[in-house]
Design brief:
The chain is of the alpha/beta class. The protein has nine helices and twelve strands. The protein has two domains: 1-76 and 156-220, P-loop containing nucleotide triphosphate hydrolases (Rossmann fold, 3-Layer(aba) Sandwich), CATH 3.40.50; 86-155, no CATH class.
Length: 261
């Protein structure tokens, strides 16, 4: 449903992405993984048309994003950014209501239907009890759920998450990713997760993309992608992929850095 074809991008003539092809399938959770600085976030911004590729194109259901308005894109693709810092005195309900903006005309207030959608988004993310609390008074994990609720209020087909577990305590990391997986399965949402945290994210992905040296190094299921050789090349670690019997999911066992020898 979302296809990148031959994407290349550079910052001041420094290559970041080169000839990247990627197909995001309806209803899947796909992880874009690689070390810091490999171009993952740049690719995510291009998938949302926040950046324009210098070469190639992105198609939504066969239509080039360059031919679509920002508002139309926002009705189909929602973004959960890397930072959830909000410095103004907004309540949780205020923040989640912002997800309805792509559907409102200028100077138009939210309708009864809009507010019902906002309430549903807060219910699904278990933050309804915090609706009138200032977001500045919430923990990092709670704020992340608010930003996900805002994305849900857009009623998107696709959610793009940029390092959704960054700066979160380990328990909140699991809470956020468990929530994302549940919403994907229950709502039929397509989810794209950008992360460098291979051991955490692998448990939740249907397919994975490893980005290395500005290109797609490997693409497929975790079992197909996370070979010892691929993890050695991309992450510079000695690791193996195992099956977690408790979670019934793949798990990465890291033995150590390749530099330890």
């Amino acid at each position: 449903m979302l296809t990148a074809e031959g994407i290349s991008f550079s910052y001041r003539e420094k290559p970041v992405l080169q000839d990247v092809d990627l197909e995001v399938r309806k209803g899947e959770i796909i992880g874009i993984l690689g070390p810091n600085g490999c171009g993952k976030t740049t690719l995510l911004k291009i998938l949302n048309r926040n950046l324009k590729p210098q070469k190639g194109r992105v198609l939504m259901e066969g239509v080039d994003l360059e031919e679509m308005s920002k508002r139309k894109i926002a009705r189909q693709i929602a973004v959960v950014p890397q930072s959830n810092e909000i410095r103004f005195a907004f309540t949780v309900r205020d923040i989640v209501s912002m997800g309805r903006m792509p559907f409102l005309d200028r100077f138009q207030g939210e309708s009864g239907d809009d507010m019902r959608i906002v309430e549903e988004a807060m219910e699904k993310t278990s933050i309804k009890e915090f609706a009138d609390r200032l977001i500045s008074h919430m923990s990092g994990g709670e704020r992340q759920r608010v930003i996900i609720a805002r994305a849900l209020a857009q009623r998107p087909e696709i959610i793009l998450l940029d390092e959704p577990t960054l700066h979160l305590d380990i328990n909140h990391q699991f809470e956020v990713l468990d929530l994302v997986k549940r919403l994907s399965r229950e709502e039929g949402l397509t989810v794209v997760i950008v992360s460098h945290d291979l051991p955490m994210v692998v448990k939740y992905c249907d397919r994975m993309v490893l980005v290395h040296d500005h290109k797609v190094h490997a693409l497929g299921t975790p079992e197909e992608v996370l070979t010892p050789e691929n993890m050695r090349v991309v992450f510079n670690i000695d690791a193996i992929l195992e099956h977690d019997e408790v979670l019934n999911a793949p798990a990465v066992k890291i033995i150590g850095s390749c530099n330890r020898r």
